[in-house]
Specification:
Blueprint lengths: L4 H16 E3 L2 E3 H12 L1 H7 L5 H12 L13 H7 L3
Antiparallel strand pairs: 1-2
Helix pairs in contact: 2-3, 4-5
């Protein structure tokens, strides 16, 4: 079987999608990466831990990092999962 350029592109797209669906124990890459940024910076973390629900975490993230920060799709982030994890 000859590996064509279009077949290679298709394989790469599938692998990227697989990486984004379930990542490092999180629902997906976007959730993992958003949580990483919220917990990796001391100033952001100190504010994040005071937030009372998933909606406020999403708003905080967008205001402080932006909608497309680090290629994170904020609509794919499971904000409830991030909220639940903050008290662990």
């Amino acid at each position: 079987m000859k590996l064509t350029k279009s077949k290679l592109k298709e394989i790469i797209r599938e692998e990227i999608q697989n990486l984004k669906e379930g990542y490092q124990g999180w629902k997906n890459w976007d959730t993992w990466n958003a949580n990483l940024h919220l917990t990796n910076d001391e100033s952001a973390y100190n504010q994040y831990i005071k937030l009372k629900n998933a909606k406020s975490i999403k708003s905080f993230f967008i205001s402080n990092f932006g909608k497309g920060f680090d290629r994170i799709n904020v609509n794919k982030v499971d904000w409830e999962e991030i909220y639940d994890a903050k008290d662990e």
